[in-house]
């Protein structure tokens, strides 16, 4: 049954973050159903919603799911680029700048959670190179410095390197990293573009290499691939952010 706001949400996402989001939305007064129904007004998918093969992240075909729902349903999720969704209204959270910024902050905290068990020392005693001065790079560098770490940030733009110096960080040029890597205990990549080959990276266990980008930025057998960390390590926080973003966007509309 719908509430006065006219919204009836069907959460079809398979992740723990989606389940947390649905529970929070229900507590916030949004009517939620646990099955497809012709009365549904909104469909909640995962963020991101699809696997590389175009199937839903939890398995299944989006076109088949939509056939069980009203044709005017609004689809909520992330990276909602799919032929089956072309005729539908969509709320793509990964196009919302505030969601992206808050998710970057969660990702940075999760990056520290992922790295800590792999270290034999503290972050304060582990000089770090953060590659990229985007949303995640900014949040990660701030957290590391707050823990007393010696932080160098690699940025492509000269203007960004100038700002890094003004903020008190050591700065490096992303295009000229090769000769400068031996002194770092941790290398964190946030750039979705191959920048460092296995030959360029320090070898051995003395340097922890963590790739946070959506596409590989470092090549090597010992590079730790750490994508989608909020959903894996902090699904409750991720779900809370999804729910808060949905409520904000619904209020704006």
Short description:
The protein has 253 residues and is of the alpha/beta class. It has helices at residues 16-27, 62-66, 97-115, 135-146, 158-166, 229-233, 235-252; strands at 8-11, 31-32, 42-44, 74-77, 90-92, 128-131, 151-155, 170-173, 186-189, 208-211, 223-225.
CATH class category of the largest domain: Alpha Beta
Unreliable spans are none
Number of strands: 11
Most strands sheet: 6 strands, parallel
Give the oligomer, counting copies of the same chain as homo and different chains as hetero.
single chain
Strand content: 15-25%
- CATH fold-type name of the largest domain: Rossmann fold
Q: Give the helix tally.
A: 7
Q: Which strands sit side by side, in order, in the main sheet? A: 8-7-6-9-10-11
How many separate domains?
2
Ordered list of secondary-structure elements with their pairings:
Layout: E1 8-11, H1 16-27, E2 31-32, E3 42-44, H2 62-66, E4 74-77, E5 90-92, H3 97-115, E6 128-131, H4 135-146, E7 151-155, H5 158-166, E8 170-173, E9 186-189, E10 208-211, E11 223-225, H6 229-233, H7 235-252
Helix pairs in contact: 1-7, 3-4, 3-7
